[in-house]
Amino acid sequence: MVLLPFLLLNIWIHWTNYATDRPANPYGFTTYIGYWEGIILPYEQFPLYQWLDRNIIQIRRVDFETQAYIGLVAVGFFLWTIRRRFRLFDPAWDEMAHHRLQKRYLYGIFTASLLLLLFSCGFPFAIKGMDWMVRFFGPLRQFRGLGRFTWAFYYTINVLAFYVLWHKSLYFKGFQGARFPWFRWVILLGPLVLLGYEAGVFQKNKKLTLRENLAKREVFAKDPNHWLNKVDFSQFQALLPLPYYHVGSENIWLDFDFRHYTKVQATALHTGVPDMGVNMSRTPVGDMVKSVQLISIPGQIPAILADLPSNRPIALMIEPGRWEDVQQRYRHLIAHATPIYDGPDLRILSLAPDSIRLAVREATQAIVQEMVRKSAIASGPWRSERPPGWLLIQSYDSLTTSPHIFQGKGAYSGMMSDTTWLWKGRIPKDPYYLSMWVYVKDDMGMTHEVKIIENDRDDGHEMHFQHEGLRFCLRQIINGWALFDLRFEVYSNNSTTSIFLQKKGVEVPFCVDEVLIKRDDVTLYQRSPGWVSRDNFWYELFDR
């Protein structure tokens, strides 16, 4: 039962999947755990639950991931086994050959399910103060939905309960003096009646509605003006949803509009054209970086274009209500795209991969021309059209031993769980712009966090606190490095501002380079061999 599925799974994985960089630290291992309220207490719509909640104790609400109510019969049986110190069977039952054969097996699955129940509830690593144990769990961390393992206990305890009740009924001779021998039928049928009652309550309160099956083309595209009936999708090699979604448990989370997501997924189903959006866990880190680079502000030719089988166009699947947002965020994708379909539910543009390459070159040339036109004042390697005022440039060029370097001769490397100081001192009162480049082809690279704290210099009280997840501040990707930027404000001239990186509980190395803090109203330019930069956005030159 263990070795054969393990062998088949490994054959399937290694023959069909060549990704070697799937995330080793998916989110949820200590979050999506089981809770006893979801296992031994009825669901919230049950009368017993409501009576307990109103009259005995207010019950903690738990996530649906951990709701695996075993049933009142199994709860009673489990409490009975605890009282008997887990002696499940009576010695007299050994007279039956089938029981002697099954007893060891039943004890085995009960023990295994009980241990799995403790594991699914996060014992002991989910207890506050014990989470340090997680770093030693290795591949077990891939079981991020631990609450689902409670179902093993659900099935096992119910099988055992009815096995024992059947034997109790079979051997029942009556109460003292052989009275009421018919009670054996109560022992046998009473739990079935109770189980049926709970099933009825559950079904009665579970509201079910029927919806049309969108997997049928005649249902999904019944309108003659539907895009499936108007557009020849055989000309496209892929579908690219805009706004772009990339949802998973790993390094990035670009959420989707469900209505738009349904349209794109159904189109992929009915046409066979693959969807370039992502809605899955454990996406390989390298593939994730390539996908997100395509829709980010272009600094170089997106690497994913080299993976495309041809120069056949890509269908841009755009939500009409988000058209203005799409125009702002994905200019390089729609600049040379050709309209194909424009309806109330979807807008489709045709985009050739070579058009993306052209848009990247045009964006770079525009930055070069802007720099020539506006940069008159030098500030170290940077130039601007006005005095930059207070400015911090940290290139880390003296740290040449870093395993990865973005620009210059060095970069900083450290552990994400440690405190990495970017600045601590006085900054004049004003709005500011913070940007940095982080290497993101390592697992967890996009999940770092930055904290900004402003304290009064006289009495030390906290004036302002800002905590940002870097993956929500992603702007550009170049050669496996990602630019993250954010705005913050210093509220007093008599304060100390502390800016540092720290991701608690994540024992993973990372690299950071080219940190820039400047006034928000100043634009900085820089030219280096093969590159031009505007406000720490870097663009690869094509004329070298």
Structure, described:
This protein has 544 residues and is α+β, with helices and mostly antiparallel strands. The protein has three domains: 21-205, no CATH class; 217-361, no CATH class; 377-540, Jelly Rolls. The protein is 32% helix and 21% strand. The chain has helices at 3-16, 36-40, 47-55, 72-83, 97-120, 150-171, 183-205, 217-220, 227-230, 258-271, 285-295, 323-329, 331-334, 353-374, and strands at residues 238-242, 246-247, 278-279, 314-318, 338-342, 347-351, 377-379, 382-384, 391-394, 412-415, 420-425, 430-439, 449-456, 462-469, 474-478, 481-490, 495-501, 509-519, 524-528, 531-534, 537-540. The strands form five sheets. Strands 9, 10, 12, 15, 16 and 18 form a six-stranded antiparallel beta sheet that branches. A five-stranded antiparallel beta sheet has the order 7-8-19-20-21, covered by helices on one side. A hairpin with a 2-residue loop joins strand 15 (474-478) and strand 16 (481-490). Helix 4 (72-83) crosses helix 6 (150-171) and helix 6 (150-171) runs antiparallel to helix 7. The model has no long low-confidence stretch (mean pLDDT 91).
Name the descriptors.
544 residues, alpha+beta, 3 domains, five-stranded antiparallel sheet, 21 strands
